[in-house]
Amino acid sequence: MSKAVVAVVYHSGYGHTARQAEAVRYGAASVEGVSAKLYAVDGGDAPWAELEQADAIIFGAPTYMGGPSAQFKAFQDATSRTVFAAGGTWKNKLAAGFTNSASRSGDKLASLQQIAIFAAQHGMHWVSLGLPPGNNSSTGSEDDLNRLGFFLGAAAQSNADQSAELAPSPSDLRTAEHLGARVAQTALQFVRGRA
Ligand SMILES: Cc1cc2nc3c(=O)[nH]c(=O)nc-3n(C[C@H](O)[C@H](O)[C@H](O)COP(=O)(O)O)c2cc1C
């Protein structure tokens, strides 16, 4: 049976989004037949050849000032030359996104939208979160999966006064794992369907 490769590319300034990224990778790797690898970026350098081997790329960044961090944006901008102008080498790969910030909203949606548009510019197929919103009823709680109620990708919230050992919350990390697993399962369907 064919196997699928999932890459998780992220930036994290202070470690919180790194924990979310590791949860995404863990979820993807939990799917049999899938290998998943983390790639931290901090500007315009990235392991381009390795990313080209991936069947799916999951992008993640902290939300800074209402959008993906500048370091992640520099990575995105670099793909104009290394991926787009190089022949559109990410076309027809799967894509998904995640973001983390201090406020429950914190304008995270703007970051996910920006990442989804970026994926579309590369001709990638966007995979949504695929979970109902949690914590939106009288019986809901902060422990619910997708407690922040996003559809486009996985969201996490890290209290501004807590270190990355304490935040994001366990429910946000489980939500991130779910996204990784969903992308991995979809990648297997694509890889095996093409085979
Ligand atoms: C420059 C900067 C801008 C920020 N802007 C936002 C924001 O727009 N919304 C928000 O909720 N949190 C904002 N934050 C808080 C971060 O998103 C939050 O601390 C996050 O956990 C950082 O993730 P990291 O440790 O992976 O860098 C900002 C933090 C910094 C340093």
UniProtKB/TrEMBL annotation:
Molecular function GO labels: electron transfer activity; FMN binding; NAD(P)H dehydrogenase (quinone) activity
Cofactors, names only: FMN
Pfam families in alphabetical order: FMN_red
Entry GO terms, CC: membrane
Top-level taxon of the source organism: Bacteria
Database matches in SUPFAM superfamilies: Flavoproteins
Protein name: Flavoprotein WrbA
Organism: Duganella callida
